[in-house]
């Protein structure tokens, strides 16, 4: 496990495997892989078998959390790596309050996107 992995592992409260997500979304695992490839979800290798895992907070009510895809696109456009995006999304911000990932789950995506855009300045 690299240093950034340990840091992210400490920030992200729960993880799901791609088959878990496929089951929740009611799609094939290949579709989940496609979502990761397209940048609509972030998956990282973790655990002993280095399987791909996605933060559980990215899925709510059997769907990808509203506003997540747009936020990931903004962060990617700002030059963030997947690890940096996860770190930003799961680092508590008392001015939000909570983490950007929590704010997205609570349908406060407009504020999260505004902050993501501000990072580009």
TrEMBL record:
Keywords: DNA-binding. Residues 65-120 form the Rv2175c C-terminal domain. InterPro entries: Rv2175c_C, Rv2175c_wHTH. GO terms for molecular function: DNA binding. Pfam families: Rv2175c_C, Rv2175c_wHTH. Residues 4-59 form the DNA-binding protein Rv2175c wHTH domain. The keyword DNA-binding applies. The keyword Repeat does not apply. This is Rv2175c family DNA-binding protein.
